[in-house]
Amino acid sequence: MLVLLLATRVFAYDFAWGFGGSAYQTEGAWNVGGKEPGVFDTWYHTNFPNAANADVTTDQYHRYKDDLKLLPTFGATLYRFSVSWPRVMKGCSGEVNPEGIAFYSDMIDEIIKNGAVPFLTMYHWDLPQACFEQYRGWASDQIIPDFVKYADALFTAFGDGRVNYWLTINEAESGCKFGFQQGRLAPGLKNDTYQATIDCVKRNHLIHGAVVNLARSKYDATRKGWKFGFPSNVEWNEGPDAVSAEKRNLAYAAWYHDPLVFGDFQQDTISAFIDNKENLDAAGRAPPSFTDTEKASMKGTVDFIAMNYYSTAGIPVSQEDVPSGAGCPAYCWQHVWGQGARKMANWYYKRYNMDIIVTELGYAGVNEADMTLDQVVNDPNRLKFWQSHATALAQALEEDQVPVKGMLMWSLLDNFEWGYYDQKFGAVHVVGLGTSGGTLERVVKNSTRWLADYYRQKKYKNPFAVGKLPSFDENVSTSKPGAANTGVATVTKIQSVSTTKFSSIVPLLCMMLFFIL
Ligand code: GBH
């Protein structure tokens, strides 16, 4: 017993954490460095000239070097950012813009220099306006080859050993529904039926498959240890009864991952769609039947489950951990319950048997916009959020043995929340954000210091490759002549589940040996 206890202390679980953000929400510099307009630039400038926009936002474009220096102060070793497609491509899918590529290239180097692993999101909703003007963007199949061409440019530029973790498309359903069906966000296409969202999400799935296949065939992604994820927005559904809750979980979560894991929707997913009347097309049918070629192109194209989690549905308000600034009555979408994150991770692992990386998890403080600096920084509600969620994820990892390998807190900085500056998800406050003349000075919130201490004390073992600037791997003699990449850094793979289980025996044996001697 004592031996077991010691063994679990000495040999830590695999886990690392860090922060996320996205280009439009944080960069600003909307027309700097050869960047062309994205749909959000045009949407706000043309349709809502008096509303808040992200022309400046946190100005991270000019401040990323200082921002990234925060990571080691927290002991954070993962950093997620998105590339702005209109910053790196001319037109919709023309030539690359070398200045845009240089910007991200330098940012990636800075991430690595600060001891963190870059997670590159290819698409976080900021479509080039040119793609919209040419063929209405996600409303047309033409987006597929154009996206693949864009992804190809990213692999060529950053796939030299520096970037090994690729998130293709952020929250397919949110991007499709808001921008291309409900018309609430840019580019504001409206469509009465859900069919537009269904068609758009299908294009997201097909693109993900095509991009991963390109990486594998042209860039030898498997040998290089590249890992691909498809960050999906899920909320855990709890109640009112187990059957309907499970159907809701299936209808939400399996919609994203079934095709990319199995090649198609599974029968229980389709039944959940039909019983819940969810994700049905204009004719009331479950979405979409893929051709055999399409199924083959998607199957097995995610290497881990990328889980964006914020909220649990179906719990009484009295059971919520803390009120949220994105909660009722104003916004009503975030119901805070840490155990929901644990249950969601368990659900994913049971269904797909894959590693899980929480690619977003975060909290918007209540009325933070109206608080004094002192109130914002000493944020007891946010502290409670992180206490309950960090604990819940640790329980998933340690008690439930679910391989939650990483967590990316949303977000490093307070930023532009798709229309507002009053929902602040940042680990770090940005002074005067969204106001003219704001200094944009960064001030760390106390809850973030608590989280950093929590993980320091955990002494988890980082399973990700840290801090590898490109270096030539002499052991690799198989690289094809003329292949795009020569600099290949050694990649520590996310340990497979079976390895994790096996490795828990090894310490036990060592300890027994130690005691015998
Ligand atoms: C994430 O989506 C986004 O990836 C990220 O950009 C964003 O900053 C972050 O959330 C925080 O919101 O208006 O009631 O219909 C999270 C999932 C799905 C949450 C859509 C907000 C809108 C609910 N989002 N939801 S509602």
Account of the protein in words:
The protein has a single domain (about 1-460, about 475-515), classed as Alpha-Beta Barrel (TIM Barrel), CATH 3.20.20. Helix 8 (about 145-160) runs parallel beside helix 10. It is of the alpha/beta class. It contains 20 helices and 11 strands. The strands form 2 sheets. It has a 9-stranded parallel β-sheet. It has a two-stranded antiparallel ribbon with strand order 10-11. Helix 15 links the parallel strand 7 and strand 8. Helix content is about 45%, strand content about 10%. The protein binds ligand GBH. Ligand GBH binds next to strand 7.
CATH superfamily: Glycosidases
Q: SS-based structural class?
A: alpha/beta
Distance between the termini: 18 Å
CATH topology: TIM Barrel
Helix fraction, binned, reads 40-55%
